[in-house]
Design brief:
2 copies of one chain form a homodimer.
Chain A (H helix, E strand, L loop, with lengths): L2 E3 L7 E6 L12 E16 L7 H10 L3 E9 L7 H19 L6 E6 L8 H13 L6 H7 L8 E8 L5 E9 L12 E6 L5 H11 L18 E6 L10 H24 L7 E9 L2 H13 L1 H8 L5 H10 L10 E4 L2 E5 L2 E2 L4 H7 L4 E7 L5 E8 L3 H9 L3
Parallel strand pairs in A: 4-5, 8-9, 10-14
Antiparallel strand pairs in A: 1-6, 2-3, 3-4, 3-9, 6-7, 7-8, 10-15, 11-12, 11-14, 12-13
């Protein structure tokens, strides 16, 4: 399956992105719409944070019906920790969007990202929605992607086409934003996937749930988890292959997973201040939980991540993280490779191989592979390095 | 009880610190001795990391007897992840120390800190021990403190005197090193406490165990946990008040706790690249576990720590961390203060108070206080900010 980095036309959906003046930067796009020609089937997953933003509560409530027609998303203000006023504002933003595009307010869901604890001005927002509704285009996906960016340096879009059993092709496309507060269980992250396939809400749920472990839940930038994370999957059914057959659902789910994985990878690659994309693979763990906690501990360790930034094949820090993860680890058994170079085995550092590993770590992407040799479970997490720019961005930017 | 930052004379103990050439820096002290005039009672606690360094295994084994006469500690090499060769080296370093000072090798324990995965040269080490044995002095505590420093910018020593029931005074003094890899459960950290009190090994164990929750286990620098952490408490009994009475044990334990807390505070204040010492207090949690995980999540969040560095009263990030900690948190109930300024209450940000909080955050020390208003449990963790220099130190230094 070919997944492209970039937009696609998805029959039944139009998109736009405009500048409504919600962001500080003059003229930056900060309000986007996704509108389906008719009510689409839909499913969504959300932040596991105990403190959820107002738009998350509204979306959780409305997506239960399995049908949505529009998403109104903004950057520049997270509408999080804003109490009842925030909930009212989130519902109002949907109501005025519904009026502009002509659908029931319950079919519109809001998303917000940006500074926490503040409300946006509804007048600015309303003017933005009016403008965005006037600019809806089937090729407007990139405008939408730009409107939801915060510290992202570029828009993130991926798409693929899949041939279904009946010979018809369906398209799946996705747009995401990330940059910081990305970790356990899908963090500051908004992602929207749309497809022209006809799929029931429960089929969409199956597909999205299956996609998460190897995509949005398998990445970390800083171990922090946002209050606004949302992934929505909507299907227009504009390609009139009836509801998916069991076999088609398998292919469709794989498509959703691969588009999600591509977007997730782009999120890490564009992590705040990131200069490297590192795949942390743990194999041979005693249990799946051990594998995951070991991979996450390595992927989140500030000492490991600063060593990545410094191109330092620092075996000690990686093993320190593995050993402190709670997973069963036996130092005499494990094998560790960095960028394909074996650097530790049989309880000892392979000192002679370190210069070669250091050289390979200069590349923008590499893999850290730890085989615990204790069992059959494995886990893979994508992470990035911790650079001066991460500190700069986060010491100077108020989220 | 007055605890002083600085050394004290502790009857029955002598100390030294020399340069044995184990560190890269020419002439830097890197080998230290603590020697008791006669076998002392002793107890110790260690890293919870699954991968422990060779000297930790040797110390764990030997301290079980409850008696030690000497510690030989080095910086510049952690002797961790060094397999059987590392264990042999650790035992050898004790044997040659025992020969120099004239005691049984089983009464000597080793500690190492520095680069992981490498062995030190035993010849250099032996020469260093010989020199250090010749320089033992009752006022040599600062030399010892310097010999165990890695990225620490200054030696850390604290001491106090306590009057016992019988009218006699006993002294407790401690030396520690820290700087990075400091977190959950007592991380890269070596600390040695000595006292002239007469206390049984089990009394020492009680005192040290009681001291940990509010000292070495209540600090974090980067959430990472080292393979070498060791805290040793030794009592010479040189002040011949018989074994501690129950009441004296209480006073003695408080002394151990306060000296430990002072050292722990110094470790955080001197954390790698740290410019601020922040006390994170969580109160009103549903359970002690909730209080602790909430405080730790805030104290370890890179986004929170970079905001500290930027003097940014970033309520959103603190609440994001609280909400993602797993603790029960209700955003409508909690109260949050930064540096004594209330910044969030009743589900809303107190926007007008933010400039004042930002101003107060310019100070070198402040407190973040979060009252969850859900129960009676509390937890306090000391942390520091995450600065450019943390990245610099750890991208350029191989541990």
């Amino acid at each position: 399956m070919d997944v492209n980095l970039g937009p696609a036309l998805v029959a039944g959906f139009r998109f736009s992105g405009v500048s409504a003046g919600l962001k500080h930067q003059e003229g930056a796009k900060d309000l986007g719409l996704i509108v389906a020609d008719a009510p689409a089937t839909a499913t969504a997953v959300f932040s596991a944070n105990r403190i959820k933003a107002a738009p998350v509560y509204v979306t959780m409530d409305r997506v239960r019906s399995g049908r949505l027609q529009a998403v109104v998303a903004n950057s520049g203000c997270a509408n999080s920790f804003t109490g009842k006023a925030g909930l009212k504002l989130a519902r109002e933003s949907c109501a005025l969007t519904a009026r502009e595009i002509g659908c029931a307010p319950e079919l519109v869901v809001p998303s917000s990202t940006g500074v926490i604890g503040h409300l946006f001005e509804i007048e600015k927002f309303a003017a933005g929605v009016r403008e965005a509704a006037g600019q809806l285009r089937d090729d407007g996906m990139e405008d939408f992607a730009r409107a939801i960016m915060t510290t992202d340096t570029h828009p993130k879009i991926a798409s693929t086409s899949i041939r279904m059993g009946g010979g018809q092709s369906v398209t799946i496309a996705g747009v995401a934003k990330g940059a910081g507060m990305i970790s356990p269980k899908m963090a500051t992250m908004l992602a929207y996937l749309v497809t022209d396939a006809a799929a029931s809400p429960s089929q969409l749920k199956v597909a999205l749930k299956a996609a998460l472990p190897n995509s949005f839940n398998a990445i970390t930038i800083d171990g922090d988890m946002s209050t606004n994370d949302t992934v929505i999957l909507m299907a227009s059914g504009a390609v009139r292959n009836n509801a998916l057959s069991r076999r088609d659902l398998v292919a469709f789910s794989r498509g959703v997973e691969e588009v999600s994985a591509m977007l997730a990878r782009e999120l890490v690659r564009d992590g705040e201040g990131a200069t490297k994309l590192v795949t942390v693979e743990v194999r041979g763990a005693k249990s799946p939980a051990d594998a995951e906690r070991c991979a996450r501990q390595i992927a989140n360790s500030p000492l490991v991540k600063t060593a990545f930034f410094g191109c330092d094949p620092n075996v000690g820090r990686i093993l320190m993280a593995a050993g402190s993860s709670g997973a069963v680890v036996e130092s005499d058994r494990l094998l560790l490779s960095i960028a394909g170079i074996r650097v530790a085995a049989r309880g000892a550092l392979l000192v002679d191989s370190l210069p070669q590993a250091a050289e390979k770590m200069r590349e923008r992407e590499f893999t850290v592979s730890l085989d615990l040799k204790l069992g059959k479970s494995s886990s893979t997490i994508l992470t990035c390095d911790l650079s001066y720019d991460y500190v700069k961005i986060n010491a100077e930017y108020t989220t």
